[in-house]
Design a protein that fits this description.
The chain has helices at residues 2-14, 30-40, 47-54, 58-64. The chain is mainly alpha-helical and 90 residues long. The protein has a domain at 26-77: Arc Repressor Mutant, subunit A (Orthogonal Bundle), CATH 1.10.10. The relative contact order is 0.13.
Length: 90
Amino acid sequence: MRADRSCFILHRESFGIALPSQRFAPAMMPEQVWHARALLAQPDATIASIARLLGVSRATIYKYVPELKSGHRPQLEASPQTTRAELPAG
């Protein structure tokens, strides 16, 4: 029985069929998580409105920003990917 299972897995992999645990991409990319944290730093932003804006559920926001579970809103931190070079004046 065990040999049949491994043969099936190899056959499935040869056709590019992913295992169930490998089918889905993350719900939020790192840039989206940073954007959610930036929006959460604003006092008037709600989790529901941020989730709607990013196209995810409120549960997903809580999953990717775990400090919200303890009731703390994250502070905005600079992201190395989003820093921009400024042109010199003059």
